[in-house]
Amino acid sequence: MDEASAYRHCENVVRSQARNFSYGIRLLPPPKRRALSAVYAFARRIDDIGDDHAAPAATRLEKLARQRARLADPGGDPSDPVLVALADAARRHPIPLEAFGELIDGCEADVRGETYDTFDDLLWYCRCVAGAVGRLSLGVFGTSDPGTAGPRADALGVALQLTNILRDVREDGLSGRVYLPAKDLAKFGCTLHLDESGHFTDPPDHLVSLIRFEASRASEWYGTGLKLLPMLDRRSAACAGAMAGIYRQLLKRIRSDPLAALRTRTSLPAWEKAAVSARAMAGIHR
Question: Would 286 be classed as within a structural domain?
Fold first, then answer.
């Protein structure tokens, strides 16, 4: 497959499967947009394997291991459009492909049903599944000071993943998954158990305190991660700012009404995502 067709495939993956991220990616100039689409498409492939609950755990772990092996030579399969595009992107940009290995580590933890006792334990997971994507994205964006920018990109990824976890508490609970640290649950007297009707059995005021505590923690990670933006060129800063802005708006919704967020998955209408992207393109990050 030729590289142009491979990139088109990856951009289609972004448009159809990454609606929040697509608002940011489209703000990039074409070469960076194509490269980041390739990064996302491979990351999405890894996530989809991990999330395929219809397949046995052993099968998913085997598939993840195969994807890990393919990273050693991403250009080795000319029939795979995602790998063709990723190999070309890595030739053109300093993309740390080894970070995909961390993403696979995190997905393997999901397949094994890992739970997290402390926030430091959860932080390891967030850095694997989202901080790594932040560092991969930074390879596309470019920076003159990677030593400083790298941890900030990592922190921004952590902030987005914590937001994802808070958005999906009920959805994960219905699947038998709890990501929030056990020590935090104990601190606020919560179990996150669901009854037969899918409602949380914990006292509502305990749930509100727990979610707002975790939301405040996520806000602190945004505070660190957003320091990345001044280190990027204008279009890259707009891309990262749009992605972060959409998730920060989600976090604000969750924090303002935790019980509503626990009843149904919080989302933003398209017009609000577009407004956040427009502010990001104008250099307004709030």
Answer: no
174 lies in some domain:
yes
Are 51 and 21 in contact, with CB atoms under 8 Å apart? no
Per residue in 84-129, pLDDT (tens digit) is 999 999 999 999 999 999 999 999 999 999 999 999 999 999 999 9
* Contact (CB, 8 A) for 130 and 160: yes
* DSSP conformation letters of 53-74: TTS-HHHHHHHHHHHHHHTTSG
Q: What are the Cα distances from residue 71, in Å, to 16, 46, 102, 224, 281? A: 24, 12, 12, 30, 33
Half-sphere exposure of 9 (CA within 13 A, CB side): 18
Residue 230's domain comprises 3-281
pLDDT category of residue 284 using cuts at 50, 70 and 90:
low
Domain at 163, CATH number: 1.10.600.10
Q: Name the phi and psi angles at 68, rounded to 5.
A: -60, -45
Name the amino acid, one letter, at 2: D
Instruction: State pTM to two decimals.
Output: 0.94
Count the domains in the chain. 1
40 membership: H or E segment, kind and range: helix 30-51
CA atoms within 13 A on the CB side of 126: 26
Q: Could you give the angle at the alpha carbon of 67 between the alpha carbons of 21 and 143, nearest 5°? A: 45
> Is residue 272, in this structure, part of any structural domain at all?
yes
Q: Confirm whether 167 is domain-assigned.
A: yes
Strand partners, 194: 200
pLDDT score at 280: 87
Tell me the per-residue pLDDT of 26-76, one tens digit each, with 9 for 90 and over.
999 999 999 999 999 999 999 999 999 899 999 999 999 999 999 988 888
Q: Rounded to whole angstroms, how far apart are CA atoms 178 and 86? A: 33
